[in-house]
């Protein structure tokens, strides 16, 4: 049996891998989990001893096949729970991440199956993140950061970072959620990105928030963008 903390680290490694590729650095995991790098190094040694990661000093870690399977299972639990909390219990999308974090390690496979059936096997969670299927197959995202696009480009919001409740509340308030069409209106040299919504309203986003928004071009399906086809 793995501890909840071990599962958290495996999930974090997988999430960083999806965003930045492998090998995954200690600093990237430390930032995601808000812990000190030496703490991450100590955990990586434990995970390596269990055959869950391959580690190369000064370069980072890669998940083994077993480690990736565990990460995908925890991620499936997490994102199904987020969807269940939002759709069935009327949680705000800014609240579901922390609640799912607390529950994801403790549900049975039978509970997971029933939740998935109740929700009609959703492919994405409330933040637009792809939910691994019940075969725990890796998902490959084809979206890009909003901040990586140029003025004049029209895009569809694919997903947003789910870890900052204040950030999520702000995006919901200004009308930027998965499925929203936006056009990059201006990129001034002051760490901001201004986008125009379909109704003509403009919103100026700090780079830190623009980096948290992943987008796709119109015409690319949600399934294709999430690698779920």
Q: Order of strands in the sheet with the most strands? A: 3-8-4-5-6-7
Q: Give the proportion of residues in helices.
A: 40-55%
Which CATH class of the domain at 144-225? Mainly Beta
Distance linking N and C termini: 33 Å
Main β-sheet, in a few words? 6 strands, antiparallel
The CATH topology of the domain at 144-225: SH3 type barrels
- Look at the structure and name the CATH superfamily of the domain at 144-225: Ferrous iron transport protein A (FeoA)
Count all strands and give the number.
8
Q: How many helices does DSSP assign?
A: 9
Let me know the average pLDDT: 91
Which helices and strands occur, and which strands form pairs?
Blueprint: H1 4-20, H2 26-33, H3 37-49, E1 53-56, E2 60-63, H4 65-88, H5 96-103, H6 109-118, E3 144-145, E4 154-160, H7 165-174, E5 181-186, E6 192-197, E7 202-206, H8 207-210, E8 213-216, H9 222-225
Antiparallel strand pairs: 1-2, 3-8, 4-5, 4-8, 5-6, 6-7
Helix pairs in contact: 1-2, 1-4, 2-3, 4-5
Overall description:
A 6-stranded antiparallel sheet has the order 3-8-4-5-6-7. Strands 1-2 form a two-stranded antiparallel sheet. It is built from 9 helices and 8 strands. Strand 5 and strand 6 form a beta hairpin. Among the domains are: 60 residues, Arc Repressor Mutant, subunit A, CATH 1.10.10; 82 residues, SH3 type barrels. With 229 residues, the protein is α+β, with helices and mostly antiparallel strands.
């Amino acid at each position: 049996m793995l501890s909840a903390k071990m599962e958290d680290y495996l999930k974090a490694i997988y999430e960083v891998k999806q965003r930045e590729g492998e090998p995954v650095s200690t600093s990237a995991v430390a930032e995601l989990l808000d812990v000190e790098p030496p703490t991450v190094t100590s955990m990586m040694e434990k995970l390596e001893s269990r055959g869950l990661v391959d580690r190369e000093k000064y370069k980072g870690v890669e998940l083994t096949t077993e480690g990736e399977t565990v990460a995908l299972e925890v991620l499936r639990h997490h994102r199904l729970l987020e969807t269940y909390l939002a759709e069935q219990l009327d949680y705000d999308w800014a609240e579901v991440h922390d609640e799912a974090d607390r529950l994801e390690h403790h549900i049975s496979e039978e509970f997971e199956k029933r939740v998935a059936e109740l929700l009609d096997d959703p492919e994405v969670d409330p933040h637009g993140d792809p939910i691994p299927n019940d075969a725990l197959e890796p998902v490959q995202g084809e979206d890009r950061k909003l901040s990586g696009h140029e003025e004049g480009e029209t895009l569809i919001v694919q997903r947003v970072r789910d870890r900052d409740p204040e950030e999520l509340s702000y995006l919901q308030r200004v009308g930027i959620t998965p499925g929203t069409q936006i056009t990059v209106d201006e990129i001034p040299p002051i760490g901001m990105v201004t986008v125009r919504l379909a109704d003509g309203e403009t919103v100026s986003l700090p780079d830190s928030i623009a980096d948290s928004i992943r987008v796709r071009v119109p015409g690319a399906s949600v399934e294709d963008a999430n690698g779920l086809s």
